[in-house]
Amino acid sequence: MTPARGFKSLPLRAGPPPGARPGGAGRSGPLAASTPARPYSALVANGERNRRDWEALGEIDPLYAILSAPAAKHGAWDEQAFLETGRADAESIMAACSALGLATRREASFELGCGVGRVTRALAGYFRRSVGLDISEAMIRRARAMNADRPNCEWIVGDAPDLRAFDDGVFDLVLSFIVLQHLPDRAVISSYLREMARVLAPGGALVVQMPASMPLRQRVQWRRRAWHGLRRLRVGERVLYERLGLDPIRMNWLPERDVQAALRLGGARVVAVQAGWLGDGSRTGRERNLTYIATR
Ligand SMILES: C[S@@+](CC[C@H](N)C(=O)[O-])C[C@H]1O[C@@H](n2cnc3c(N)ncnc32)[C@H](O)[C@@H]1O
Question: Can you give the residue range of the structural domain that contains 262?
Answer without folding.
Answer: 40-214+251-295
